[in-house]
Structure formats: C-alpha cells, structure tokens
Amino acid sequence: MSTNSPALKLPSMGSMINTYGTVLILIVLLIVAQAMSDVFLTQRNMFNILRQVTATGLMSIGMLLVILTRGIDLSVGSVAALGSVASATFVADMSPVMGVAATIGLGGLCGLASGILVGFLRLPPFVTTLAIMTIARGAALIMSQGQPIRMGADGASITAFGSGFWLGVPLPVILLIAAFVVAAIVLTFTRFGRLVKAIGSNEDAVRLSGINVQFYIISVYVISGMLAAAAGIVSTTRTGIGSANIGVGAELDAIAAVVIGGASLMGGRGNAINTFIGVFILGIIANLMNLAGVPGFYQQVFKGGIIIAAMLLQYGSTLVKR
Fold first, then answer.
1. Based on the number of CB atoms within 10 Å of its own CB, is 93 exposed (0-12), middle (13-18) or buried (19 or more)?
2. Which of 86, 136, 254, 313 has the highest CB neighbour count under 10 A?
3. Which CATH number is 75's domain given?
4. C-alpha closest to that of 20 among 322, 319, 310
5. Considering the entire predicted model, what is its pTM?
6. Smallest Cα–Cα separation from 258: which of 123, 47, 76, 116?
C-alpha cells in the first residue's frame, strides 16, 4: 500500500455549523416546543404557524434575492402596507384579478425605483430603500386617508382565499410553499439565479465578463417589491381590511429570516430552502411564546436574543478560524 495516499479530510467544526446551523436551530426549537406543549406538533398548529408567516415568507424571498447581490431592501414592510390598501381599493373599482395584478404591479414600480437608484445611480441600498420605505408608507396613508378600507362584496373571492383550503391545506400555505419552490428552482438551476449570486460574490468580475449587472440588480428589487405587495394582499385576505398600518417592522423579520437561514449580508451566499426554515423558525418562536403566555413586549427581547444566537451559529466558521 502506498504511503503517499492523501488522508481523508474531515469537515471542520466551523464548516459543519455553517452548513447545518439553521437545521440545528430548528430541531432544538421543535424539541423545546413539544416539551412545553403537547399540541405544538399537531397538524392544525403547524398549518396555523405557516399561515401566520405567509406574508413574512413572501417578503423574505425578495429580501434574499436582494441580499444575494449585496444589497438590502428596507421598504418591504411599507410596500406591503401599500399593497394592502391598494388591493382593497382596486378590487372595488375593477375585477378581483385585475385588482390583484394592479397591486402587484404597483409594488413592482416601488422596487423599480429602488433598483434604478441603486443599480444605475449607485446610491447606497440602505439609504435608498429607507427613502422608498417612507414614500410607500406615506402613499398608503394618503390612499387610505389614514382609515382602514373594508372590502365589500366585490372582494369576497379574495377574502375567501385567506380562509380557504385545498386538500386540507390552507391556501396561503400552498402559496407560500409554491413561492419558495419556485425561488429554489430559480436560484439553483437558472442562469438568473447563478448570476445573482455571482454579483454578490464579485460584482466587478461579473461586469468585466460582459454581463449587464444593472439589469439583474434592478430585477431583484422589482421582484422584492412585487412580493412585498403580494404579502400585503395576503394580509388583507385574512382580515378583509386594507390598512396602511400593517407591515411595521416587517422588513426586520424578513432580514432576520434570511440571516437565520444562513445567507451572508455580504452577498453571494444563501438559498431559498434555508430561508424558508428561517421563516418557519421565526413563526415557531412567536407561537412558542404565545403558548407559554409570554407578554408581547418580552417576546421582542427573546426574539432578538435568538436571532443573535442564530447569527453566531451561522458565522461560527469565521469565529473558529479567528
């Protein structure tokens, strides 16, 4: 036997944490939650959690795409509020299908504004989307005149979606899962997904290869805006009311879900499946605290602590190397 054969190289602890940290967090939370409540792992409660995080999940997909390009989109919560108000307004003036399409198009316009400012004018994404966040929230308040807009009989088919089921699965949950499946396919198997990741890893190299980087940056912001508007529509379907006050702080939940899912805020690293797990983890945390009777103010503190712990796990490889 040759003595020069290479030794089997085992993955480092940091690499293992980086790869499986999200799943580890999920498993620990599931074990703790089931120990605290026998009803936690029931089908009804699982569907209830997923239904509650549908809006956050849709925003998280758009946030993931933007973060992969080394950007950030702070406007998603406000665009969701605009989508909620717009859907309630448009459905009253046109057919439900046209109203939903117009609302998603409006969200896309918000994303287009962010994308042009970031992609072409090279403005900082943080400040740019902060400005769009303010504009979108103001537009929602103007459109609704600061009052909730109740959907009438014209919106019955839309509100039915929020409470509907197909094969025993809530329709919002089906929408959420379908959106993440499409995102996973796009990021894994398409040229668009590979280039989005490549831009976040090394934008200059992608540009020197002759790729129109601006097009892809604008595209991810447009998609983020459309998904945020869709999240607003989903929120409206649950209550039958369009409100400019929804989505406050939702951008932070979306960012948290992406980070818990292992995506790097420096761009180029992240995937849809782990982001879905990150969204589910946030839903579990909220559900677990409700079952435990933890007051809402304390929930924010615990959620922040868990997010910090998740980040420490996800960046464990870097810490280990140091």
1. exposed
2. 254
3. 1.10.3470
4. 310
5. 0.90
6. 76
